[in-house]
Specification:
The chain has 226 residues and is α+β, with helices and mostly antiparallel strands. It contains 2 helices and 13 strands; from the N terminus they run αβββββββββββββα. It binds 2-acetamido-2-deoxy-beta-D-glucopyranose (NAG) (3 copies). One 2-acetamido-2-deoxy-beta-D-glucopyranose (NAG) binds next to loops. It is found in: Membrane. One of its GO terms (biological process) is octopamine biosynthetic process.
Length: 226
């Protein structure tokens, strides 16, 4: 019986590994850049939780904009971060008005709360949150319900050495169509909708672990019968 109890506890522990589930997921470039997010409208102020996974061990940046085309770096709100010197996590708040290096928001206008930055297998994973509307007009782009928002990304194999020192992206892109960040829906009736389920990798891992736990419990019972 002890074995079974142990295995059940192990299974339950597996199920509670890692917290955050993200409601929305977009593959911005397959195998290179994924973004996950949730807007929590129960929180006051409303808060957006982002996670992005980029194929780089240098800096990786996520941006969002209400610019009509989504391109040209016009009015992009940008989060740029990474892990440098193997253990130093960083994420800074930027804004760009035009093509070129984004401008670092003042020290007093850093609105991004970095909760995790990790590097593994050549990928950088960053999790952060921010108030949907910081009120920093001209420094931030609010995340709003019903407003068309394009999402963009960039990366470089080298890390930023400080908030103002980083090389130009070696890879980048932006969504051809805008999204409603609150609902995760694409603004288009003709093209495929993004995945809006909580089908993140974390969920799949948990389901797999749950199955593993059930199998182990069954194995445990079989072994005890003998
Ligand atoms: C949203 O925030 C509320 C209040 O902090 C919390 O209870 C709830 O679990 C959060 N919802 C999600 C989906 O994270
Ligand atoms: C990172 O690792 C180096 C070398 O092991 C150590 O000296 C430094 O304190 C660490 N820095 C952080 C932020 O943990
Ligand atoms: C977004 O706005 C629509 C239309 O006003 C509303 O029905 C919906 O509940 C809102 N969604 C969220 C997540 O706030």
């Amino acid at each position: 019986m002890k074995t079974v109890t142990f295995l059940v506890i192990l299974g339950l522990l597996c199920l509670s590994i890692d917290g955050m589930q993200y409601e929305h997921h977009l593959v911005l470039k397959s195998g290179v850049f994924d973004v996950y997010w949730t807007v929590n409208t129960s929180m006051i102020p409303n808060t957006v939780y982002f996670k992005y996974v980029a194929k780089t061990t240098g800096w990786a940046a996520l941006g969002w904009s209400k610019t009509a085309s989504g391109g040209q770096m016009i009015q992009y709100d940008i989060a740029l971060g990474g892990v440098r010197n193997t253990n130093e996590s960083y994420l800074k708040d930027y804004y760009s008005s035009t093509l070129g290096k984004p401008t670092y928001d003042d020290d007093v206008r850093q609105n991004l709360i970095l909760t995790s930055a990790t590097e593994s297998g050549g990928f950088t994973t960053i999790e952060f949150n921010r108030e949907t509307d910081t009120g920093d007009t001209g420094y931030d782009v609010p995340i709003q319900n019903g407003t068309k928002t394009w999402i963009m990304w960039g990366l470089n194999p080298k890390d930023a050495t400080d908030a103002n020192t980083f090389a130009k992206h070696t890879e980048k892109g932006y969504t051809s169509l805008p999204y409603n960040m609150f609902t995760g829906k694409q603004f288009s009736s003709t093209t495929a909708q993004p995945k809006t389920t909580s089908g993140s990798q974390a969920t799949s891992v948990k389901i797999m672990l749950a199955f593993a736990a059930i199998l182990l419990v069954q194995l445990g019972s079989v072994l005890m019968l003998h």
